[in-house]
Design goal:
Blueprint (H helix, E strand, L loop, with lengths): L4 E3 L2 H4 L8 H16 L5 E4 L6 H11 L6 E4 L4 H7 L1 E3 L5 H7 L10 E5 L6 H12 L7 E4 L2 H22 L8 E4 L13 H10 L7 E9 L7 H14 L4 E9 L3 H5 L6 E6 L3 H4 L8 E4 L11 H7 L4 E4 L4 H4 L6 E4 L1 E2 L7 H8 L5 H9 L3 E2 L1 H13 L1 H19 L1 H21 L4 H4 L11 H4 L13 E4 L3 H9 L2 H4 L8 H14 L1 E3 H5 L7 H13 L3 E3 L3 H5 L1
Parallel strand pairs: 1-2, 1-4, 2-3, 4-5, 5-6, 6-7, 8-9, 8-11, 9-10, 11-12, 12-13
Antiparallel strand pairs: 14-15, 16-17, 16-18
Helix pairs in contact: 2-18, 6-7, 9-16, 12-17, 14-15, 17-18, 21-23, 23-25
């Protein structure tokens, strides 16, 4: 039986928010595909946002009706992750979780799989660099969604490795394991619907003889794709066409439509809000050709060409990043050549971005201004498809078959589960680890504050330190607990009943050691009780008795 826990923060899987990003659509699509096609006998979800169960179950069942038992693992329960064996992260930040894994009693507790979406942001570049210096194990994996992003990830890993070797003489560095698994889709969601086609075209007064060129996605010239080359190519194609051409843009975000439509006066320009499921899915049936000339380094895969293929539309896309892995040139559509500067010609961009003189959108947008798509070739491809309905039909049929056979989640989820099975097998077969025999070290970049700042106080309160009762502490505790200024940080304190028990036990005994006071509580709560002695002392609900060392000082 496949064993994996799905990291489930509702924000990452919900497409109903006002800002719909590709990662939201990809997350929701993955979860639906996983719920439909997993071979696991039980679903395990990690409640990383700490939401109430009555908020989580409806989200999952809205995405797909669950047909088997569900286990929710609490936000901080990494031992619970270890009982399953693998946790799947929706980001490439394996190193962060690998450090947190050290909270478990054994570094072999569980494996971590992550996935690349955009990798151009500083935090994600750092996450990839950290794969070389973090406590990555042989049973951890990073899933790259395209051959292009895998190549970029390998380059960065090797560059960081080379730097550490040259500067620090580092030799024993982790070797992150990368695998390539594409994003998938639920092809049935995009099946052509003649009724939807007729309804949308009728609502926008689109005649039957018109050819509709469709774009679906976020509108952002800096962060997604520049629409100007698409407008120029469409205008060229429409000028030579013997039938009306409509450009139907179903998206959301930036409003650049007036300026862009002015560049293609021979094309009828229509916009729809594509965030709503009532538009985002049916609109595919209204189109005849899909157009997306992405030119941005933020893109790593690109779901919309897959969705177009599943809808039976031929595509005209740029030969860029993940589009190279999905659209077969001359079979499913056309991939239009792209050009970028050679390596080394963007160092000024990188330095300004690293110095925060450029915001993220200016960095990726600035780079996109130096990336060219062949407008003339795009116009020729569009013209061929506009003029030739048989070519559209033939390419659309091939695209739809490829989407169903290669990219439907029914074909992709088994690849994930085979990977998770392999990770568990490697982890379970690993021999004894010498690190288990040594005292485990915390993450040196995120230390315990009382370790890092251990020289600040006069003295650390140890388990053999003695603490005495204070008269009237029971009444004062009620007063203190009603004073917000004295009770913030409550998540790190004992419960109110535990505090009451501590004060009562001290009142009865008169004087106890810290460990002696903690003995009255379950073992799993004793660390919290020991340190809460200082909370009692802070508000004069107990008195810490001086030791010989403090008296000497």
């Amino acid at each position: 039986m496949t064993r994996a826990v799905i990291y489930l923060n509702p924000e990452a899987f919900d497409t109903r928010g006002p800002t719909l990003m590709g990662r939201h659509a990809a997350g929701e699509s993955f979860l639906r595909g996983y719920l439909r096609h997993s071979r696991s006998e039980r679903f395990h979800f990690w409640n990383v946002a700490g939401r109430p169960r009555d908020q989580l179950d409806p989200l999952v069942t809205r995405i797909w009706q669950v047909d088997r038992p569900v286990t929710w693992i609490d936000q901080l329960d990494r031992s619970g992750l270890g009982e399953v064996g693998v946790v799947h992260y929706p980001t490439p930040n394996l190193a962060r979780e690998a450090w947190l894994r050290r909270a478990c009693a054994h570094p072999k507790a569980y494996g971590v799989s992550g996935i690349t979406h955009t990798t151009a942001e500083h935090a994600l570049m750092d996450a990839i660099g950290d794969l070389v210096s973090g406590p990555i194990e042989a049973w951890d994996r990073l899933i790259c969604t395209s051959s292009a992003v895998r190549s970029a990830t390998e380059w960065q890993i090797n560059a960081v490795r080379d730097d550490l070797e040259r500067r620090l003489g580092a030799r024993h560095l982790p070797e992150p394991q990368l695998v390539t698994i594409p994003l998938g889709l639920n092809a049935d969601d995009f099946a052509p619907d003649p009724e939807a086609r007729a309804r949308i075209r009728r609502a926008h007064d689109i005649p039957d003889e018109a050819v509709v060129v469709l774009y679906v996605g976020r509108f952002s010239a800096k962060n997604k794709m520049n629409p100007v080359p698409m407008a120029l190519a469409l205008e060229q194609a429409a000028t030579a066409a013997d039938r009306p051409v409509v450009w139907l843009n179903a998206g959301w975000g930036e409003d650049f439509h007036a300026q862009v439509s002015a560049l293609c006066p021979g094309v009828r320009y229509i916009t729809l809000d594509g965030r709503s499921p009532e538009v985002r899915f049916p609109v595919w049936s209204a189109g005849d050709i899909f157009l997306s000339l992405t030119d941005n380094v933020q893109e790593t895969f690109g779901l919309t060409p897959l969705e177009a293929m599943a809808a039976g539309l031929p595509t005209v896309v740029s030969d860029w990043n993940g589009y190279k892995d999905t659209v077969r040139h001359g079979i499913d559509g056309f991939r239009i050549p792209t050009w970028a500067p050679p390596p080394g010609y963007g160092y000024d961009l990188a330095v300004r971005y690293a110095s925060m003189a450029l915001a993220y959108h200016d960095y990726v947008g600035g780079a996109s201004q130096l990336i060219a798509v062949d407008v003339g070739e795009a116009a020729r491809a569009l013209g061929d498809l506009i003029q030739n309905p048989d070519l559209r039909r033939r390419m659309g049929d091939a695209a739809r078959q490829r989407a169903r056979e290669v990219f439907d989640w029914s074909a992709i989820i088994p690849q994930y589960e085979d990977l998770w099975d392999e990770m568990n097998a490697v982890r379970e077969a690993a021999g004894p680890d010498a690190r288990v025999m040594r005292e485990r070290q915390p993450n040196p970049r995120r230390p315990d504050p009382f370790t890092l700042f251990g020289n600040y106080p006069t003295e650390a309160l140890r388990g053999d330190g003695r603490v005495a009762a204070v008269a009237g502490a029971e009444a004062r505790l009620k007063q203190i607990l009603g004073t917000p200024t004295a009770t913030f940080g409550g998540n790190f304190l004992p419960t109110v009943p535990e505090l009451e028990k501590m004060v009562a036990r001290l009142a009865e005994a008169g004087e106890l050691t810290v460990d002696g006071l903690a003995e009255a509580f379950p073992e799993g709560r004793r660390t919290r009780i020991r340190r809460a002695v200082l909370f009692l002392a802070k508000y004069h609900l107990a008195v810490i008795l001086p030791t010989a060392a403090s008296a000497a000082s």
